[in-house]
Design brief:
- The complex is a heterotrimer of chains A (28), B (302) and C (219).
- Chain A contains 2 helices and no strands.
- Chain A is an all-alpha fold and 28 residues long.
- Chain B is elongated, with a radius of gyration of 25 Å.
- With 219 residues, chain C is mostly helical.
- In chain C, a hairpin with a 4-residue loop joins strand 2 and strand 3.
- Classes of the chains: A mainly alpha (28), B mainly alpha (302), C mainly alpha (219).
- Strand 3 of chain B pairs parallel with strand 2 of chain C, so a sheet runs across the interface.
Chain lengths: 28, 302, 219
């Protein structure tokens, strides 16, 4: 289902990083 | 006084035939409506005030017209003559339009466009007239000062199905979506405007120019985090100093959020929403996008 | 979602046409699709038998063109321009729009210099006009232009057709995000428990002090 895959691809790009050093610093 | 009134009315009709509108208005305004001798009902007084205002409007004298329409506004609530009340509303809307109180005019035109009763003393209000009122409402809204109040009226008009059938709809759409308007679109819009809507302002720009520049400035604030005044001027088709001045005025009037760094020559556009709320909003958008994906999957039986 | 909804009808139309178009007609269909201003999805068309049939024929370069529009960028086109059909203005614009989407896949903040290089645009005004009119207003991208930092911050970018091998990476990203989110939630829960227990201790300690003070007053 190409349409779904494109939608999911777009969604994946929008996920918050949550895993970068900068995020960890700010979160702590 | 009765005879004087009759003579004045007769002379006024002669002036109207000669298209001497202001003279006709002056002739009628000489009728003493507050006379202690004659008993005059409110409907008669209202009809005279509205007529005088209409005549002054024909000569583009909005100031004099406004004087009489304001007198009429004290009388209209007691009037049972629906035809006359309608004439009052139309006249008031046109006066506001001519006085460049565009947002107020837009609301009144919009109300007129939604007229339910169409027949008044043998005269029929046809669909085209309602459409004209709707178009006038859209035009006035576009010309009104950009800001939150105008945005609300734009939303109402944009969501009104009838507007999608108007010739002016494309520009309404762009203004509602806060998109930058380019010169050809503005020129096409200008062709449909009345002279007072293209009038020159004290700073040598026209009413239309100011409305378009302010709209485009607001549109730019949706696209940019910050922009130099030089680039902003190029985008708006004006000098950088003028761009700064207009931006400063809009910020001080709370019609746009932002701050100006004169040293660096940059405007920083702000938002109504603070950073954490924006973060929350982005997460909500992701959740919505996820829901959409799940809905699409369900529709495909996955 | 909006962009997908808008182009789903178009995709269906082109797919329907591809069922009967063969050879030269299929090649023309490819030109039409890659020129259409509202179409940014080509995987469906690429999987149609009559389109795949173009491989090894005199129109094979049109199949390559369609693959380029499905997965490639403007830079890819320039590298292989001699083997591909010449692009019309609409096609050129579309390929540049698709290039922006590809760049947005890997970077949330796109420097102007990178964009100008990748899109062969020589000045900032032209670049910003392209991003505003052809990307943001076209609904394929949402974001903010930052002139001071000379970059474009991407908030949303429409998805392109998946390249071979991209699916696994996507699944892995989703799995990573899931586990990171779970860990983060656990950490937050722990912090909440810690805050609650500290609060209880504080209240207990405060009560002890007050009780002692009260006792002293009585005595």
């Amino acid at each position: 289902e190409h349409s779904l895959l494109r939608q999911i691809s777009s969604l994946v790009r929008r996920l918050p990083a949550i895993d970068s050093p900068k995020f960890q610093d700010d979160f702590l | 006084e009765e005879q004087v009134a009759v003579i004045r009315e007769g002379l006024a009709e002669v002036y109207v035939d000669e298209e001497e509108w202001s003279k006709a208005a002056q002739m009628l305004s000489g009728i003493d409506l507050e006379s202690g001798i004659r008993v005059l009902d409110d409907t008669y007084k209202l009809s005279k005030c509205v007529k005088i205002a209409q005549l002054y409007l024909e000569d583009d004298d909005a100031v004099s017209a406004e004087t009489y329409i304001k007198k009429a506004s004290f009388l209209v609530n007691n009037s049972k003559d629906e035809g006359l009340n309608l004439q009052y509303k139309v006249c008031y809307a046109r006066i506001l339009d001519m006085k460049r109180k565009f947002l107020e005019a837009a609301l009144r035109y919009y109300e007129l466009s939604q007229l339910e009763k169409r027949e008044f003393e043998g005269r029929q209000v046809d669909e085209e007239e309602l459409q004209q009122a709707l178009t006038a409402a859209v035009t006035c809204t576009i010309l009104a000062a950009a800001g939150p109040q105008r945005s609300r009226v734009l939303a109402t008009l944009y969501k009104d199905e009838r507007c999608s059938k108007l010739n002016i709809y494309p520009i309404l759409q762009k203004v509602y979506l806060e998109r930058i308007l380019r010169k050809p679109e503005v020129d096409a819009f200008a062709e449909e405007l009345k002279p007072h809507q293209k009038a020159l302002l004290p700073d040598n720009s026209t009413v239309l120019d100011r409305a378009m520049i302010e709209h485009n400035l607001l549109s730019a604030s949706k696209l940019y985090t910050n922009i130099s005044f030089e680039e902003l001027g190029a985008l708006l088709g004006i000098g950088s100093q003028k761009a700064e001045k207009i931006a400063a005025r809009m910020i001080s009037e709370d019609r746009m959020k932002g701050s100006i760094d004169q040293v660096e020559g940059i405007i920083h556009f702000g938002t109504d929403i603070e950073e954490l709320q924006q973060w929350d909003q982005q997460i909500m958008n992701i959740c919505q996008a996820l829901n959409d994906v799940l809905d699409s999957m369900a529709k495909k039986g996955l | 979602m909006e962009i997908e909804q808008r182009q789903s009808e178009l995709v269906e139309q082109f797919v329907a046409l591809a069922k009967t178009a063969r050879g030269r007609a299929a090649a023309e269909l490819i030109v039409h699709a890659t020129s259409h201003r509202s179409l940014f999805a080509f995987a469906e068309l690429l999987s149609m038998p009559h389109i795949i049939e173009l491989q090894g024929t005199e129109h094979a370069n049109f199949l390559d063109l369609l693959r380029l529009f499905a997965h490639g960028t403007w830079t890819d086109y320039k590298k292989n321009a001699s083997q591909l059909p010449t692009l019309g203005i609409d096609q050129e614009l579309k390929l540049k729009q698709l290039t922006v989407l590809t760049l947005a896949e890997t970077m949330k903040v796109l420097p102007y210099d990178l964009l100008m290089k990748q899109l062969d645009i020589s000045n900032v005004r032209q670049l910003e006009d392209m991003l505003i009119n052809d990307c943001m207003y076209a609904g394929i991208v949402k974001g903010k232009l930052d002139q001071r930092r000379r970059c474009f911050e991407v908030q949303f970018a429409a998805g392109r057709d998946l390249r071979p091998g991209q699916l696994e990476a996507m699944i892995q990203t989703l799995a990573n995000c899931l586990s990171t989110s779970d860990n983060l939630l656990l950490t937050i829960e722990e912090k909440i428990k810690w805050a609650d227990s500290m609060n209880e201790l504080n209240l207990k300690h405060k009560k002890e002090i007050e009780d002692k003070a009260e006792e002293l007053r009585k005595n």
